[in-house]
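lol ok so funny story. i was supposed to be doing the assay writeup but got distracted and ended up predicting the structure for this chain instead. priorities right. anyway since i did it might as well share w the group, maybe its usefull for someone
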Amino acid sequence: MTKGLNFRRGGIVAAAVAALLALSGCAGSTPAASSTADNPYGLIEPGTIRVASLGDSKPYTFADASGNFTGFDVELFKDVAHRAGVDNVVFTGQDFSGLLAAVANGQFDVGVAAIGITDKRKETVDFSDGYLAGYLTVITTKDSGITDANGLAGKRLGVVQGTLQEAYAVKNFTSASLVRFPDNNTAIAAVNSGTVDAHFLDYEAAKAYQEQHGLVSAADIPSFDAPAGFAIAKDKPAFKEALNKGLAEAMEDGTWKNLYQKWFPGSPMPEQYLPKAEQTATPAPGK
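and the output, tada:
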């Protein structure tokens, strides 16, 4: 008797639930439609952008003494996110070698770390428009004897795994022995200890390490064929469009220029990211 009563009650409850669902359907409101309206960019958490970044890549992205992320890319992205209507932006440090995969598989909404746009990387993620161009630098000790790129022959050269510097070194420094590191800090420590003879990294980051550790630049190499962009998953067209719109506005109203002057004082400024009225020549290809 008790079991039969429970089955009958279960049937009544199921019928009531089905009726409610049917009524909800007639009202024209579905969970999918509501989700899209509340979260147009397809973010992991509506109203919050979760960013994979680097904690040791001055002046692009780095953690300050309080553990807060700052730098050119950080300030620019927060400005662009605000223009897209999102002010809650959470940065988390990652090893660069796994950063793009973490964005592609949905662990983060976007990767922000002066990430050069290349065809190979486009196989994994999509990118915003480019927003930065610059140089690459070979950094070494004052007594290493390395004074130019040719001096790398037979030397141990550090690179951060997965970076443009690694790809460039593989292609162009074939006579050097490459040693791969997870980040710049570890590589610089290896230079100082003599574990490697030099490290190949971004020009702007190299300047900070030179000042901090008394290192010197052996070669500054132009790199304008892979502009830095924000990395996003391939199935986020609305998010990409919003980021591109915000970037264009930040460049045209002078925000990009002001941030560049703040974080890269004295460095050559790529004109393609300046307001159109300030561009004096045909923009060169991005980094």
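Residues 2-26 form the longest helix (25 residues). Confidence is low (pLDDT under 50) at residues 1-34, 282-287.
back to the writeup now i swear
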